[in-house]
Description:
By secondary structure, the chain is an alpha+beta fold. It has helices at 12-30, 55-64; strands at 2-8, 34-39, 45-50, 73-80.
Amino acid sequence: MWIIELTFTxxxxxxxxxxxxxxxxxxxxxEGVVRLAGPLADDSGAVIVLDVADRDAVDRLIAxxxxxxTPGVSVAKIxxxxxxxx
Length: 86
């Protein structure tokens, strides 16, 4: 699995782009690709947990979602995660 950590700034473009981004995440959740996703409680960023084979798959997902390059959204970290409980 992989964790994408996002950071946000107060930018109206980010807020306008969020509904389409969430629809895509919901679709990917239905396909089993996105396991968990959501904003941090203070809305300073978000966490997305992906169940994909490798970093290339993560990069393709990021490239396919314009939200990740919307002003006000930054990918802070991408980390591989190996949970032992689910």
